[in-house]
Amino acid sequence: MKMQISSCSLSPAVKSRLTAAGFHFLSELRGLSPSHICAEAGVSQQEALQVLQAVRGGASMRGGTSGGGEVGGASVGPPPSLTALQLLQEEQSQRSIFSFCSQLDATLGGGLPVGKTTEICGAPGTGKTQLCLQLAVDVQVPVCFGGLGGQVVVVDTEGSFLLQRVQDIAGAVVKHCSLLVEDDEQRVAMTTFSVETILSNIFLVRCHDYVELLAELHLLPDFLSEHPRARLLVIDSVAFPFRLHFDELSQRTRLLNGLAQQLIAMATSHNVAMVITNQMTTRLRGGQSQLVPALGESWGHAPTIRLLLQWAGTQRLATIFKSPGHPGATVQYQITSDGFRDADQSEQPPSKRPRTHTVQSAAGQKDSNQSAAGQRDSNQSAAGQRDSNQSAAVQRDGNQSAAGQRDSNQSAAGQRDSNQSAAGQRDGNQSAAGQRECS
Ligand SMILES: Nc1ncnc2c1ncn2[C@@H]1O[C@H](COP(=O)(O)OP(=O)(O)OP(=O)(O)O)[C@@H](O)[C@H]1O
């Protein structure tokens, strides 16, 4: 049944403006952007956001971002009763997205989990965006290679999505999989697994401020319902739009809390991995300054897993500093022309290589001296094996030399925001194709 605008719980002023603009049912507002609603009805952006919430929540919203109704597309009613055993089985059936850094995946029990929220924090240039781009490609690896065969939505708030870089990473992954082909199923899968299809399965959304980001998050549940193959949602970064334009920190905290609820609900109800990046900020404690993730301590409770990327001298280190299921651990990684990879092991001191969590096969670990891309480590008896729970099947080469095959004819097939014609363009400071000098 259609819900009349007059009977929803928006403020009387907003309702009368909507009605005066010719809207009578909430369903008539579905699919409109906040700026469209602002222009049509003469309401503020904040009010337009509330209207969109009402549209999504079937008008049961009582104001605010978490007032009830629906959150992130998931109905907030009495929770279905599940036994602990059912929950365990559900949890065990959840897959992970591997990162092509086998040490990191092993530490995380197989990679970044679907159905959960993972935050990647780090100073500029540590590789947050590179890891996101790597995951956006990896999530598409066909199932017969141990991947998820999924699609990805990338919400870019910083303008750091570089098409050329994605092409490089995608080219390396395609080449990697082609070297693993062992049977007909994989051969057939490789006929459609190409750089072009990878790009066409990345849906890019550019958000310029927090209002656009919040609006997008209201639209995403519908988008995810229409794209059931989506297994990953990346927000790079959540910090950038929220570190500007906020005089009142309590308002920011309220909005962030609502956003966190939406992400968690979307992750579980649509079975996607939420990967968000966060910047670092300086905090003074005891007269000393230290670098901590931005957005405050209360935001820190939102993600299930928090990963910190940092420099230690010339080494890049990834530290799990929050995870309910894994002990904190630090591993080395590197960023190569092919993407996010295990650190060059020849540079790795033995003490820096925690290998205690070997849930994941070490298929991804290849001696960096192995130049032949197709070589398999004889200890890895099943380098190409297809363990459906083991997403690392394809990760055996951290150093494949073949940089991405670039198809210069490929347009940004997955882009659905018409404003994003320059999807890969960064701001002027970032024009050097992601290659920033990090001293
Ligand atoms: N093609 C490439 N080959 C090797 N390294 C690369 C390549 N492209 C980017 N990098 C490395 O990736 C790093 C930049 O990573 P990234 O853009 O992910 O940083 P970030 O953590 O997202 O930073 P910011 O917060 O500023 O967005 C730089 O150290 C750069 O050297």
Your description of this structure?
The chain has 439 residues and is of the alpha/beta class. The chain has two domains: 66 residues, DNA polymerase, domain 1, CATH 1.10.150.20; 322 residues, P-loop containing nucleotide triphosphate hydrolases (Rossmann fold, 3-Layer(aba) Sandwich), CATH 3.40.50.300. It is built from 13 helices and 15 strands. Strands 7-6-8-9-5-12-13-14-15 form a nine-stranded mixed sheet, with helices on both faces. The chain binds adenosine-5'-triphosphate (ATP). The site of adenosine-5'-triphosphate has 19 residues, from helix 6 and strand 14.
Secondary structure blueprint with pairings:
Elements: H1 12-20, H2 34-41, H3 45-56, E1 70-71, E2 74-75, H4 84-93, E3 96-97, H5 102-107, E4 112-113, E5 117-122, H6 128-138, E6 151-156, H7 163-178, H8 184-192, H9 195-200, E7 202-206, H10 210-226, E8 230-236, H11 239-242, H12 249-269, E9 273-278, E10 280-285, E11 288-293, H13 296-299, E12 305-312, E13 315-322, E14 329-336, E15 339-342
Parallel strand pairs: 5-9, 5-12, 6-7, 6-8, 8-9
Antiparallel strand pairs: 1-2, 3-4, 10-11, 12-13, 13-14, 14-15
The structure holds adenosine-5'-triphosphate (ATP).
